[in-house]
Amino acid sequence: MDATLLASKSITLFIGWVFAPAVMLASVALSRVTAERLLNREDRVAARAGWWAGLLLFGLYVLYQEPGFAMPRLFVSPRLELSLLGLGAGLVAGFLLLRSLTGLMETKAFPFLLLALAFGGPAAWYHYVFVRTHNALLLSACLGIVLGLLVHVALYPHSRRTLLLT
Question: Which of 33, 53, 79, 122 is 20 to 30 A removed from 25 (C-alpha atoms)?
Answer without folding.
Answer: 79
